[in-house]
Amino acid sequence: QVQLVESGGGLVQPGGSLRLSCAASGSIVSMYTMGWYRQAPGKQRELVAAISSGGATNYADSVKGRFTISRDNAKNTVYLQMNSLKPEDTAVYYCNAACGMSRNYWGQGTQVTVSS
């Protein structure tokens, strides 16, 4: 069973930065598509950023130019660097690992709150 553990969330002022980390059990980071999703209160969970096993990345339009997804295969860890944070970025952020149709794993989530 794959386990994903997120960390790095917290309270930050508008315009600030945070870096989220997702540590995976087993050597899956280089083989799976790793993604960050978020869910704000009363809203559906949405894709924020993803990185494929080949290294291709994609981002939600709302975070392009502000967020960067990266991975460290040796540490089995995926990161989400979030800059120029806005109040509308407030949400629970979830790490996801996916491979094909039958392998899809989620972390427990980490709260990000952007407020002055």
Keywords:
mainly beta, single chain, 116 residues, globular
Give me the secondary-structure topology.
Blueprint: E1 4-7, E2 10-12, E3 18-24, E4 33-39, E5 46-51, E6 57-59, E7 67-72, E8 77-82, E9 91-99, E10 103-106, E11 110-114
Parallel strand pairs: 2-11
Antiparallel strand pairs: 1-3, 3-8, 4-5, 4-9, 5-6, 7-8, 9-10, 9-11
Structure explained in plain terms:
- The protein is globular.
- A hairpin with a 3-residue loop joins strand 9 (91-99) and strand 10 (103-106).
- The chain has strands at 4-7, 10-12, 18-24, 33-39, 46-51, 57-59, 67-72, 77-82, 91-99, 103-106, 110-114.
- By secondary structure, the chain is mostly beta strands.
**Structural class computed from helices and strand pairing:** mainly beta
Q: What general form does the structure show?
A: globular
Beta percentage is over 45%
Mean pLDDT over the full residue set: 95
| Fraction of residues in helix | under 10%
Question: Number of helix segments?
Answer: 0
Distance between the termini: 40 Å
Count of extended strands: 11
Order of helices and strands: EEEEEEEEEEE
The poorly predicted ranges are none
Largest sheet: 7 strands, mixed
